[in-house]
Amino acid sequence: QSELKAIDTLKRLADVHLLGWTPGANPQRLKQTICDTLQASPGWDMLLFFGHSNEANTVGGKIAIAPNTTLSMRELTPYLQQAKERGLQFALFNSCQGLDIAQTLIGLGLSQVAIMREPIHNRVAQSFLIEFLRCLAQFEDVHTALQSASWHLQTNDALSFPSAYLVPSLFRHRAGVLFRL
């Protein structure tokens, strides 16, 4: 709920679309909805995933979209390529072990991807996302927002999660202009 509330703050600044699993929903239908939405016209500037993910070298990483249901980056590749062609500039995967995901997305030509390099506690992910989105809503670029959110983790969660501030990472092409709302 706290993540959804933080996302709501962006609705006054951007056209926000939320997709997610609800109990009783068909996971296969959700897979198709995600794929269709990624490639929809006119396109997206930013992609945000928050949930569970894992490294999976052979498929470029995978994300959990419902109980016992994952999507691999390999499965998402054609839809992500279409999204990039339609303007996708930045992706944030606020989930565990995103190195394979970042490598896949940068390999597709996406200029900026923020991920968590290692497993993280849900409270850390929530705290990070809330601060990151607060900074974006103040028109900070993604690098500054990531630094601020990491600093927030270091100063506010250091006793419970002492090294959590070291886990968020931004991968980007050097020539890419930093994304901001």
Helix content range: 25-40%
Q: Supply Rg.
A: 15 Å
Task: Estimate the strand proportion.
Answer: 15-25%
**Kindly state the mean pLDDT as a whole number?**
93
Number of distinct beta strands: 7
- Structural class, from helix and strand content? alpha/beta
How does the major sheet shape up?
4 strands, mixed
N-to-C order of helices and strands = HHEEEEHEHEHHE
Q: Describe it for me?
A:
This protein is 40% helix and 18% strand. With 181 residues, the chain is an alpha/beta fold. The strands form 2 sheets. The chain has a 4-stranded mixed β-sheet with strand order 1-5-6-7, sandwiched between helices. A 3-stranded antiparallel β-sheet has the order 2-3-4. A hairpin with a 7-residue loop joins strand 2 (52-54) and strand 3. Helix 1 packs parallel to helix 5 and helix 5 packs across helix 6.
In short:
The protein is of the alpha/beta class and 181 residues long.
